[in-house]
Amino acid sequence: VFTFEYLEPFANGSCSQYANCLHCLTDSQCGWCELTSSCQSRSENEQETCFLGNDWRYLTLLPGMCPNCSNYISCTSCVNTELCEWWVEEARCTRMGQRPGSVVTTEECPMPCYQRNGCDACLDQKGRCVWCQATQKCFSFSVYTSEYQFGLCREWLDQAFPLITAHENSSLTHKPQEQCKACAAHSNCSACLSALSCGWCHDASNPMSGTCVRGDFQQPHVECSVALGGREARWAYAQCPDVDECGLGLHDCHPQAECTNTDGSFSCHCRKGFIGDGRSSCVRTCYNVCVHGFCQGEPDYKCLCDIGWYGDDCSKNCGCNNHSACPEGYQICEKCEDNTMGEFCQYCRSGSYGNATKEIGCRKCECNGHGDFDKGECDIETGECFCHDNTEGFHCEKCQPNYSGDPRNGQQCYYQCEARGVLTEPKGQGISSLQNYLPPRGGPPTRECLWIIKPDVDFGTAIIQLQLNSSQLNVTCGENAVYVYDGLPELVEMGSQSALTAVFCTEDALPTAVVESRTGHLTVHYKQGRPNESFSALYKVLSCESCDPPRECRDGQCVCSEGFVGPSCEEQICPENCSFALGRGNCDKNYGRCLCTEGWTGPSCNVQ
Q1: Which of 64, 346, 387, 562 makes a 20 to 30 Å CA pair with 425?
Q2: Do 402 and 376 fall into the same domain?
Q3: Please, what's the b/e burial string for 380-404 (b: 16 or more CB within 10 A of its CB; e: otherwise)?
Q4: What's the pLDDT tens digit per position in 276-323?
Q5: How far is 416 from 401, CA to CA, in rounded Å?
Q6: List the disulfide bonds (predicted).
Q7: For the stretch 532-548, what's the b/e string if a residue is b when 16 or more beta carbons lie within 10 angstroms of its beta carbon?
Q8: In a domain, 78, yes or no
Q9: In Å, how far from its chain's centre is CA 226?
Q10: Does one domain contain both 481 and 402?
């Protein structure tokens, strides 16, 4: 390991072989003579070796004292070193070989700034020269702080920032001489003040009328009143005076707009009763601003108020909790909307919940179509549903025990398969073999299903309609079937009278089949065979307690009106009297159908 105490400076002694200061000082026996730009031995007398004419200097012995290219501020002194080159655009001296095309001889140097006469000559050539308007001299900007430190030149023109550009031969060219033009060449205030040492003499009543003259912040170099031919004049140098375009009629506002003067400009606003940008358009609208509503347009141009507001500008509250209009006046609520009711629409209607007097308002109960209407469907405060149709849950989204299905979105819950299930629901429901009864003390689930439907009605005998869709029937014909009886079959009660009304299986099923029982009892029997077999069906009860058209209560039963039959009473008995008057057929009143004469057919014997 070498330490400083064992190192000695390099010493050769052949000083004349070194061509520059830094190279010279690498030899500890040499020093640099700046006057002669030569490397000499330190052992010699400087007065005898480092002199030029009558001047002599001490040798430079420290590298930090060596002259650097950046120390030269003129092209001539830079290239005379023969070690530096001059960059004309930047007016900068740097080490030789840095950039191709740099100046390396005095013949290539541009004319020094101080030798250039006039503004155009000063700025038209490269070299970072600036023109001082106050002294009318050209100088290098690098000497500004040293020569003009007391503010003798407060403003100057710099060729690096020409004020005007022009297109010549389809290329953008800068013209520094344009900066040197006389102030009179500028015809408006903004162009005038953008030129150095120029100001605007203008008419006191119309600032746009004026002339551009030389001057400064204090005053113009000529009398403004003289320049304007004796008119009352004012001087602007720092910024252009404000022009009252509105008062002088120099604006472009729409005829239905008002002009407002602003500092340096103006603004246009459509008059009351008109709308637009104020310049290109001002379209008629309502005279008043519709605070809580909108303008209904022509021909009346009146405000159409939002519900709960009234007045010419829809700014007055009806006092109906924003749930009703009030064309007759305050708190005379026309019709409560948004699920509300009451004199001032202050209550939620049945089937909704919330608070009609607050922002939350009243929202419809969300019970999947299974809310109990007699109870109002749901709790008026919490929205929890009062469920029926064999459903349960906050939104009636689940089936009760012993029922299966998905009751969401108004779907049905079906009573499970039991060995003897008795259904007395007077409003009807569903039955299904998809879920089987499980004995409470264990054992296999029930596979043989028997549903006895006997609705509890207060008057007369109910008519029971069972509807079965083929999409819900998966029972293979020839192996199994669903049996429907009108009454109680013998397998339920010996000696009872019943009629086998229908037998259903998949292959023979209609898309939708409806079976009707008039005895007040309807029995469905099914014994599950294969594990994947099942069926589901719906039944409804028709009774005199709720017998709506096209049915009517007759002899204690809700039956079709005279002359019609079918599950929906849509089929006419012997339509058009079987064209009897034309001799085409007769009505069989026992079966309610037409017996057509030979040569005729159709429901009313009207097809030949």
Answers
A1: 562
A2: yes
A3: beebebbbbbbbbbebbbbbeeebb
A4: 999 999 988 888 889 999 988 888 889 999 999 999 999 999 999 999
A5: 9
A6: 387-396
A7: ebbbbbbbbbbbbeebe
A8: no
A9: 62
A10: no
Is 108 strand, coil or helix?
helix
In 3-state terms, what secondary structure has residue 471?
A: helix
pLDDT at 195: 82
Q: Does 281 fall in a domain? A: no
Q: Strand, coil or helix: what is 514?
A: strand
**pLDDT value at 6 more than 70:** no
Report angle CA 421, 427, 431 to the nearest 5 degrees. 35
Q: Are residues 484 and 535 both part of a single domain?
A: yes
Whether the predicted pLDDT of 4 surpasses 60: no
Handedness of CA 200, 201, 205, 206 (dihedral sign): negative
d(CA 341, CA 355): 11
Of 259, 251, 168, 245, the residue nearest 206 (C-alpha): 245
Residue 21 has pLDDT above 80, yes or no: yes
The one-letter amino acid code at 488 reads: L
Letter string b/e over residues 64-83, b meaning 16 or more CB atoms within 10 A of that residue's CB: eebbebeebebbeebbebeb
User: What 8-state DSSP symbol labels residue 117?
Assistant: -
**What is the bridge-based pairing of β-strands 165-168 and 171-174?**
antiparallel
Global pTM value: 0.51
pLDDT band at 331 (very low <50, low <70, confident <90, very high): very high
Say which amino acid occupies 108: E
**245: in domain:** no
For the record, the structure tokens of 75 come out as 């092209």
**Over residues 218-240, mean pLDDT:** 87
In a domain, 307, yes or no: no
Backbone angles phi, psi at 268, to 5 degrees: -120, 130
Where residue 377 falls among pLDDT bands split at 50, 70, 90? very high
CA–CA distance, 409 with 460 (Å, rounded to integer): 34
What tens digit of pLDDT does each residue of 208-222 get? 889 998 888 888 888
Residue 166: strand pairing partners: 173
Domains held by the chain: number: 6
Cβ(492)–Cβ(537) under 8 Å? no
The SS3 call for residue 205 is coil
Domain ranges, residue 229? 183-236
Which whole number is the average pLDDT over 448-469?
Answer: 89
Cβ(460)–Cβ(556) below 8 Å: yes
